[in-house]
Amino acid sequence: MNASAFHGRLFGAGIAGAGAGARAWWDGSTLVVQTQNELYRADGASLQIEAAGFNLRQLRLSWNAMDGSYTFFVEVDEDRTRLTSGAPDSLRQAFARATAAQRRMGRRFGAAAFVYGAVVALPLLLLLAFLLNIGRLVDWAAEKVPVRYEERIGDLVLAQTRAQMKLIESGPAHEAVTAIGAALTSDSRYRYRWFVADNKEINAFAAPGGVIVVYSGLIAQTARAEELAGVLAHEVAHVEQRHSLKNLMKTAGFSVLLALAIGDWTGTALGNAAGKLTELKFSRDAETDADREGLRLLVDAGIAPHPMADFFAKLADKENGTLPSMLATHPASAERQQRLRAMIAGLPSRQYTPLRFDWAQVRSSLPVAAAGQ
Ligand SMILES: [Zn+2]
């Protein structure tokens, strides 16, 4: 017949529902499709070309003829190659578009393989979740999430934060936060981004992927740079240990992973989940782990650790009625404070060089300090 023929399945007028196996070839710019009984011809200019099927692995060619519409599916790689290579020039662009869509999907699939694996194995995983507990399953899955997915969540949280409050991205306070933050994260696999929010609440939060936001109201409460360093170290520890991501997965479920894996960054499920992320309370265990890891980061950076405990104690001691927002998400029980003090007491004694910042200047540079807070 024709050496450059390709195979596929034809659907259309007069063909049984399951379609007919067919071979096809290009005759100039005309597509010729031959089933067992019939020969069909379609003018190239009338063809619609799309990637189709599960994972977009097929190419779908459809056209309208006098007796109705026809669709021809080509699936196998080899056949697809013959189909596209023999196609008339006028169809090159349409094929390129379909192939690009297939490649994009292929990349998403590659990246998402573990998620789809999880979906297929979902009944088993659910059983496992009941047998063990969901927390451990989430922790296990969270460790498998690529850093770039976390960064996308961080981007979403950052965009939502920008919409809600003004971020101060220069000046003495931002410089201090960035410099201390950099000292704490020099060994990290994350690319940290530091922000000061113009907000009088006493708060700070960390989003997955290394977005850290400190409120000016919190900086106004710090007596010296080391206290701020303690807060930053604690937040960095939450990022490094993926606590926010785990929180997110526990509240919003594995759909978040699916959304991330298929590249649906703007999906409402993910957007909603990211919006609530900064309000989620960390567990007691997560707080203790963040304190421990935060202390380690401080000490490694040569920053005195005691002020960290002082600052959390100061927050918990506040008797002016309102609970600092930070304590709503980072509960500082008496037990946690005792444990933090005990960890510090257990460190080998050493001299720490004080951080070189003009802290009065840092604080007075903030709008909230100027307002007399
Ligand atoms: Zn915390």
UniProtKB/TrEMBL annotation:
Cofactor remark: Binds 1 zinc ion per subunit.
Transmembrane segments: 109-132
Cofactors demanded by this protein: Zn(2+)
Keywords of the record: Hydrolase, Membrane, Metal-binding, Metalloprotease, Protease, Transmembrane, Transmembrane helix, Zinc
Domain Peptidase M48: 192-343
Coiled coil feature spans: none
Gene3D superfamilies recorded: Metalloproteases ('zincins'), catalytic domain
One family name in Pfam for this protein: Peptidase_M48
Family designation: Belongs to the peptidase M48 family.
Protein name as it appears in the record: M48 family metallopeptidase
Organism: Noviherbaspirillum album
